[in-house]
Structures are given as C-alpha cells and as structure tokens.
Amino acid sequence: MNTLHIKTGDQVMVLSGKDKGKKGKVLSVEPKKGQAVVEGVNVAARHVKPRRQGQAGGIIKQEIGIRACKLMRVCPKCNKPTRAAHTVMPDGARSRSCKQCGELI
Fold it and tell me: Can you tell me the distance from the alpha carbon of 105 to that of 7, in angstroms, rounded to the nearest whole number?
C-alpha cells in the first residue's frame, strides 16, 4: 500500500476496534505499513528504562499506529465523517472536498 486517503494533520474518526467513535488529529502517517498515529487513540503503556544518569524511568503512555482502513476523515464544516471527493479547480489543481456538504478540506 503506497498511498493513503488521510494525511498528517487531518481530523479523523475511528470506525472499529476498542477506540470506536473516538476523534483525533493524525500525528504521522506510514504509507508502507498502511498505518497512522492518531492523537489519543490506540494508547499503549511502554516500560522505559533510564538511559542516562538523572533520567527517570517508568511506564509512559504512548500512541501507536492504527490501520488506516479503520479511520475516516471528519469534515471541519459539517463535523461528520466523510469520504473525500477529489475536485479539480479551474486552475487545474486538485483538491479534496467533503461529499456531504461540498466544502473543501
């Protein structure tokens, strides 16, 4: 999988899994793995050992990747999850738009 329907900075909603219904901002995208890291979604506890003197160890909470097929972009205007329609502008540039309200994303 080389291209994804979401990009870094998009507001997305989780469609299935333990975090179903949660919304968050996409922090990073990994197209080769088909995954995205979303803020506040799929949080795992990670045990960290102190590496330097004075550095604290312990258990930290960290977001890990979630499959992109479980995510759907949320329109900023109508606040509904929607698929993207690709609109060609008069100057020839392509842009993503909401299929619900027609607003450019």
Answer: 11
pLDDT tens column, 33-81: 999 999 999 999 999 999 999 888 899 999 999 999 999 999 988 889 9
Query: Whole-prediction pTM value?
Result: 0.82
**Residue 102: CB partners within 8 Å, gap ≥ 6?**
none
Terminal CA-to-CA distance of the chain, rounded, Å? 23
SS3 letters across 46-98: EEECCCCCCCCCEEEEEECCEEHHHEEEECCCCCCECCEEEEECCCCCEEEEE
Give the distance from CA 44 to its chain's centroid. Answer: 16
